[in-house]
Amino acid sequence: MASQTCPAFIRITFMTDRPVALVTGAARRLGREISLALASQGWAVAVHYATSGTQAVTTASDCSARSAAHTPLAEGLDALQLAATFEADLADEASTRALLPQVAAHFGRVDAVINSASVFEHDDSGSFSHANLARHWQTNTAAPILLAQALDTHLKARAALQGHTTLEAGGACVVNLLDQKLWNPNPDFLSYTLSKAALESATTLLAQALAPAVRVVGVAPGLTLPSPYMNTPEHFEALHRLSPLGRSSTPADVADAVVFAVRNRALTGTTLLVDGGQHLMKFERDFSHMPAPAAP
Question: pTM here?
Answer without folding.
Answer: 0.91
